[in-house]
């Protein structure tokens, strides 16, 4: 599906990098930095001391963006270097260094091993229709050339993407095991796994996963481990060996004395059974409420004392969901469809594949025996209702619950084994009617990445819209001042300043702001300047929430169309305009 949607194998190296939009391009750029470094430690140092992501500041991108999957990928190859450190290998590697091969030892090691074992990992074909745009002074001319384009696991971008797809395949195996273990039946594993595939998702209205469209996102790496953790917790809960749970040596004895004292009062008729139950329940309730209140209270107190504001936007987003509160940051989030409430069509799609009805029946049946997974599923569904993007967690949880319909332990008293198996087979068949149609629709997706305007753009840009900046950093290695990782309070403040270019402020005031950030060029995406995706979500509308002083002025980007001063326009096409700070 990834290949069908982008025609990834037949794209040039630049086009492949451009196809990694927004955050994906940011993550892949750091992977390239690690791999192309002479040594593993050099690559690690480069991403831990990066001064081109939030220029002129130096930040630890490893920690900020959770680049541990990329580091692990690079480290695995370093282990191969140690294990296979033969004379021939070392000689080949050092020759590569002397020749200036820039992919780092790890990838060269992989290439050497596959070549030695005659494993076919790369195919090259000649592209006769590639048009390369060359900029000479003010002259733009198109040159028809022939070029050789590599594809296969021997190509860096392919290796990165395939590693993610293999991890997702491993996740499906663990997902099957989770459903099989919970239901105690192969049919349970089949129901859960088929439900997952039947609700796999569409390019714009994803249900279970986005890995086939946006592989480098953090969820593609993290969700397989979440499934593994759910499986481990399930095994732990079911385990009869619970001795490790005694976390304190004397805590159980202290609690035992309290309980014995209460039971003593009950046996002496000094308190009633109702009062005993109320006291015990009250103790548990006080512990629970104290834990929740203490956790929340400590979090806000520490954040207030230390001035930590990185997570403040989460509270603001939740506040905007249930009140009329809006500000610049929350508007950027809530105007995006993935942060809106769950779309009304989502339950209808789940009903058509019978996942939602099956999950509801299973939840009622397992309310006691599988209470942990019931609570987990309800929590994920509640999160998905509030923020649509979190359907990625809610829908798979419903698939897990649906698998319990195949459990003999739960339904042994309802019908005999043969009737139960017949029901399960009929359920799978009924699911498959709409499910196979969904899969066919995804497999029939045909497309090809093509964005010549952005290919023209990647020349000299330092500030602009967050998604565009990620692409600029990946393809040009130029310093940028803002990027799509909006969770950090510092980058929110930077982006707020950069986005003044879309406000109604005078161009001179915007120039002063950008100049103070040491910006030399700014890019304006005309869609951001003119587009209004839905009422109140245009960039000018968002700025009007807080910039009441200039509400009667035209937007800055419109003003620059008529008179670019104090900026200087240095590049322009149908989608992008680049202005240089004089």
Automatic annotation (TrEMBL):
Coiled coil: none annotated. GO terms for molecular function: mannosyltransferase activity. InterPro entries: Dpy-19/Dpy-19-like. Pfam families: Dpy19. It is found in: Membrane. Its main location: membrane. It is a multi-pass membrane protein. The chain crosses the membrane at residues 159-183, 249-272, 278-298, 354-372, 378-407, 419-437. GO terms for cellular component: nuclear inner membrane. Keywords: Glycosyltransferase, Membrane, Transferase, Transmembrane, Transmembrane helix. It comes from the Eukaryota. Belongs to the dpy-19 family. This is C-mannosyltransferase DPY19L1. It comes from Acropora cervicornis.
């Amino acid at each position: 599906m990834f290949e069908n949607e982008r025609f990834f194998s037949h794209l040039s190296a630049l086009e492949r990098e451009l196809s990694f939009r927004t955050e994906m391009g940011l993550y892949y750029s750091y992977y390239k930095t690690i791999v192309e470094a002479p040594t593993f430690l050099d690559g690690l140092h480069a991403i831990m001391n990066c001064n081109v992501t939030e220029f002129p500041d130096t930040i630890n991108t490893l920690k900020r963006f959770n680049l541990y999957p990329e580091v692990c990928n690079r480290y695995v190859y370093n282990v191969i270097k140690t294990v296979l450190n033969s004379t021939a290998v070392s000689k080949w590697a050092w020759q590569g260094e002397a020749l200036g091969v820039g992919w780092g030892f790890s990838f060269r090691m992989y290439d050497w091993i596959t070549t030695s074992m005659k494993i076919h990992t790369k195919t090259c074909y000649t592209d006769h229709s590639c048009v390369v745009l060359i900029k000479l002074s003010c002259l733009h001319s198109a040159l028809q050339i022939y070029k050789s384009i590599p594809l296969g696991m021997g190509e860096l971008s392919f290796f990165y993407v395939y590693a993610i797809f293999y991890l997702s395949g491993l996740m499906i195996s663990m997902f099957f095991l989770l459903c099989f273990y919970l239901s105690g039946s192969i049919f349970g594993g089949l129901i859960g796994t088929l439900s997952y595939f039947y609700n796999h998702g569409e390019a714009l209205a994803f249900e279970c996963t986005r890995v086939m469209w946006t592989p480098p996102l953090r969820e593609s790496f993290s969700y397989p481990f979440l499934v593994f953790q759910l499986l481990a917790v399930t095994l732990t809960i079911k385990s009869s060996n619970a001795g490790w749970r005694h976390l304190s040596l004397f805590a159980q004895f202290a609690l035992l004395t309290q309980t014995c004292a209460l039971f003593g009062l009950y046996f002496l008729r000094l308190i009633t059974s109702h009062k005993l139950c109320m006291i015990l329940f009250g103790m548990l309730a006080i512990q629970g409420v104290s834990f929740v209140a203490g956790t929340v209270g400590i979090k806000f107190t520490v954040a207030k004392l230390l001035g930590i504001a990185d997570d403040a936007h989460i509270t603001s987003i939740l506040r905007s969901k249930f009140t009329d509160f809006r500000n610049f940051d929350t508007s950027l989030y809530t105007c995006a469809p993935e942060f809106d409430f769950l779309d009304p069509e989502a339950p209808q799609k789940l009903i058509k594949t019978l996942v939602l009805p099956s999950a509801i029946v299973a939840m009622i049946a397992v309310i006691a025996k599988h209470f942990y997974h019931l609570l987990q599923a309800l929590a994920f569904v509640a999160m998905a209702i509030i923020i649509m993007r979190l359907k990625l967690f809610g829908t798979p949880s419903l698939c897990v619950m649906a698998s319990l319909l195949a459990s003999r332990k739960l339904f042994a008293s309802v019908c005999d084994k043969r009737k139960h198996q017949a029901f399960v087979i009929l359920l799978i068949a009924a699911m498959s009617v709409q499910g196979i149609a969904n899969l066919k629709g995804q497999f029939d997706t045909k497309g090809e990445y093509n964005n010549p305007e952005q290919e023209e753009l990647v020349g000299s840009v330092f500030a602009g819209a967050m998604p565009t900046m990620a692409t600029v950093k990946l393809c040009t290695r130029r310093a940028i001042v803002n990027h799509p990782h909006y969770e950090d309070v510092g980058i929110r403040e930077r982006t707020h300043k950069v986005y003044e270019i879309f406000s109604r402020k005078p161009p001179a005031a915007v120039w002063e702001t950008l100049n103070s950030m040491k910006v030399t060029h700014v890019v304006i995406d005309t869609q951001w300047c003119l587009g209004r995706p839905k009422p109140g979500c245009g960039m000018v509308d968002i700025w009007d929430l807080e910039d009441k002083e200039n509400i009667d002025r035209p937007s800055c980007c419109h003003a620059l169309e008529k008179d670019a001063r104090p900026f200087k326009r240095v590049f322009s096409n149908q989608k992008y305009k680049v202005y240089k700070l004089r």
